[in-house]
Amino acid sequence: MTRPDKFPPGPGGENGIEVVASYVHSLGLKFGIYVTPGISEQAVAKNTPILGTHYTADEIATKTRQNNYNCGGMTGINYSRPGAQAYVNSIVDELARWGVDFIKLDGITDHNTADIEAWSNAIRPLGRPMQLDVTEGNYSIALGPTLDKYATQWEYSSDIENYGGKGLTNYANAKMRFLARVAQASAQETGCDDGPRTGTRPRLNVTWSWMAGTLIVSRL
């Protein structure tokens, strides 16, 4: 559900996120959205119907808490149950209608292999380009075959955003990413960094754009 106060609908009643995506596309850019695995505990508690089926959220839910760093309240999905894949399909279908180009599936662990497969299976039949970027809560190399088969890109080390620290970038984590030859760089912000603007730091920022990581540009 989209908050109309934050993302008002378009003149033709278009969803507010669709309006934002259309504007981003008009700039020649791609539009991405952030999600985490699982299903809302609120939907489970209310036995919310799954679109296009006669199943309800409680019928596909487990009691395993999933990583969700903003709101919390996500529980796992049992993909052996009917209606589970249909639930993920319904989300991806809506994101596609909005014009989403990239889906970032965050908070992933070694126990989320079925989630990665389900999101990939929902994307592939759409007939339009949509990338699946899988980023970790905390996973090991054991997840590698699943990532290679189902994800478009992935991350395998700590974020380089300097959460709560001085400046925008944790350069120790950035250095580890280059040493580890990571496939995808997550959450690179370029803006009012308190560090110097010369030397290796600008080169790190530019290189990040080459590595296809998320690049957030602010007050340069």
A few lines on this structure:
With 220 residues, the chain is α/β, with parallel strands linked by helices. The chain contains eight helices and nine strands. The chain has a four-stranded parallel beta sheet with strand order 1-5-6-7, with helices on one face. It has a three-stranded antiparallel beta sheet with strand order 2-4-3. A two-stranded parallel ribbon has the order 8-9.
How would you describe this structure to a colleague?
- The chain is α/β, with parallel strands linked by helices.
- It is 34% helix and 18% strand.
- The chain is built from eight helices and nine strands.
- The chain has helices at residues 16-26, 41-45, 57-60, 84-98, 113-123, 144-150, 171-180, 200-210; strands at 32-35, 39-40, 61-65, 74-77, 102-109, 131-138, 153-154, 188-190, 215-217.
- The strands form three sheets. Strands 1-5-6-7 form a four-stranded parallel sheet, with helices on one face.
- α5 (113-123) links the parallel β5 (102-109) and β6.
- α4 packs across α5 (113-123).
- The longest helix is centred in the middle third of the chain and has 15 residues, at 84-98.
Strand content: 15-25%
- Head-to-tail CA distance between termini: 33 Å
Q: State the order of secondary-structure elements, H for helix, E for strand.
A: HEEHHEEHEHEHEHEHE
Biggest sheet architecture = 4 strands, parallel
Helical fraction? 25-40%
Radius of gyration: 19 Å
Total strand segments: 9
Q: Kindly report the spatial arrangement of strands forming the biggest sheet.
A: 1-5-6-7
Overall average pLDDT = 81
Provide the structure class: alpha/beta
Broad shape: globular
